[in-house]
Amino acid sequence: MLIRHKRPGDLTENDVTPERLYLNRRAIMRGMAAAGAGAVVPWGAAQAAYEDIPGEKLDYVKGPYRTDEKLTPYESVTTYNNFYEFGTGKEDPSENADTLKTEPWTVEVEGHAHNTGKYSFDDLVDPQQLEERIYRLRCVEAWSMVIPWVGFPLNKVIERLEPTSDAKFVQFVTLHDPDQMPGQDWPVLDWPYVEGLRMDEAMHPLTLLTVGVYGRVLPNQNGAPIRLVVPWKYGFKSIKSIVKIRFVSEQPETAWNKAAPNEYGFYSNVNPNVDHPRWSQKTERRIGGGGLLSLFERRDTQMFNGYEEEVAHLYKGMDLKKHF
To answer: Is the pLDDT of residue 40 over 80?
Structure first.
């Protein structure tokens, strides 16, 4: 079957509980060099702390969103995961995700947009837009991490795909292939995994399409080769291994909302004032904090996961207990 490719640069764009990559590496190296040596994060200085991290290195610029909080250790980031396509246990993804084949990879764009079609990974990713952002990740089970993601703003892709005025929401779809994702043999969810954002949420500069972590190519268990990171929402909104992007006019179905609508709302913003029906969201446990005592240490959950100043205006006038 022939796959039609377009280059974005040429376009005129539990209990039910949520939550290697093929880069054109030569293109990335050329693109980052063209961006200017002053913008590229140099290895050996700023990246010295990452030198012992396994995997292939990425070149990227230092992104605008950072935090001074202690980073979650790479080992925790890559072995404590929610990725039910590979099993419901936290260690299952790191143990089972080697079955996922991520090259070649295509993402199909559908719906209300001028530039629909199938895009190879390299057509979709602009190497000159790769940047590192240090974001908090807050999971609905009341644990959190601080992770240095490498990716590019989703709004840049959306602009090049040129959605029409009928596009009010964006829906994302994960690969559905039980041979590669053995967890899909079990009816934990209505596969494939789907997620969605309102258009203004998708266009917000915090929303990141992610291809790496800790300066390295994104491991399979973390959502290779391309995933979403929406840092003010619970982690299950950050869909992994994306194969479809749909521009739709009505609020789309999402995997966890279909599975348990009384527990997982469409918006799923981090809100300590709205408890999960089976546990409190007022506090959280930071993974990888160090030592046995860290298992019992709790910290207050921040509204919108600490990004209230940046995103609260998106929900002005909304009842956030009703629209949870």
So the answer is: no
Residues facing residue 208 across a β-bridge: 153, 229
Tokens 């990974």 locate to 121
> What's the CA gap between 23 and 32, in Å, rounded?
13
Q: How far apart are CA 316 and CA 324, in angstroms?
A: 14
CATH superfamily of 8-315: Oxidoreductase, molybdopterin-binding domain (3.90.420.10)
Q: What angle do CA 224, 229, 231 make, to 5 degrees?
A: 150
Length of the chain: 324
Q: What is the pTM of this model?
A: 0.85
CA distances from 157 to 12, 90, 203 (A): 12, 31, 9
CA atoms within 13 A on the CB side of 206: 23
Rounded to 5°, angle at Cα 106 from 101 and 109: 145
Q: What is the mean pLDDT of residues 241-259?
A: 98
In DSSP terms, 213 is beta-bridged to: 149, 216
Spell out the domain ranges in the chain: 8-315
